[in-house]
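ok trying again, last paste got cut off:
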Amino acid sequence: MAISVQAVPLHAVVRALRPRQWLKNVLVGAAPLAAGVVARPDVLWRVALLFCLLCAVSGAGYLVNDIRDVDYDRQHPEKRLRPIASGAVSIRYAGIMASALVCASFTLAFIIFGLNLLIGLIAYIAISMSYSFGIKNVAGVEMLFVAMGFVIRAVLGGMGTNTRLSAWFLVFIGVAALLVVVGKRQSELARLDVGGQAAAVPARTALRSYSSRYLQGLAWLSAVVAVGAYVMWAVTRGVLDDEPVLLIASSIPLAASVRRYLRLIAAGKAETPEEALIADRFIVFTFAMWFALFAAAVALGS
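nice, full thing came through this time. structure:
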């Protein structure tokens, strides 16, 4: 049976790909940005293309995830409005679109960047699919898999632009990602338990294995390790470039942002991390300070 294009509105298709989540894919620019070469034309076009490839692949991953979770989403007060759960995009159409996006991305990755990056992209989609097909239900491991997705984004950016990534910088990215995931789980858990009684919202399986105390402790541990890893990277990079002051100083507003985010987690306001971060003026201000110091240090050290 042919798929009717008219039956699948364009806005529903776009929403099903979750474009708001594509912001995570800017991590492909982390390696060249930290190396101070991201503005070079020969690097910039590679970063832009890698960003597009990851948006396509991650969009396919979200489609598969929503197909797998369609029954759960239909019982959720908010997720039931997602295009697949609501029926705006059929399961069959979503499956075909996911396959097409993955095939096109793999082909372009191999032609333009070569076999190594193709293998990296396959590893990324393998982690994404593993998460959707069962890992999401394994407490602890599911959070690590989400964090691994962030690290692979940064690694792909380094591979695609021939830029070396510091081990400390990768640790910072991975643990900072874990902090975001832990905050999301903490907020989901807080929402699930209101006034001592379980809310009438279906919970992800792994969430039942967590306690607020465990997640809060893990959030603090992740925050300390993330800031510590960033400081170690800043010291190492600063010494090599003989421009340590600005880069090390950038850890101060970064630490302030992380501390503020810990407060949002404790208050159960981090269920949608991207919205929580953008809505908090203090985090926006301190992040802007961090980026200004970081950019200036990298520019002077390059």
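cool. The beta strands are 193-194, 197-198. Residues 166-302 form one domain.
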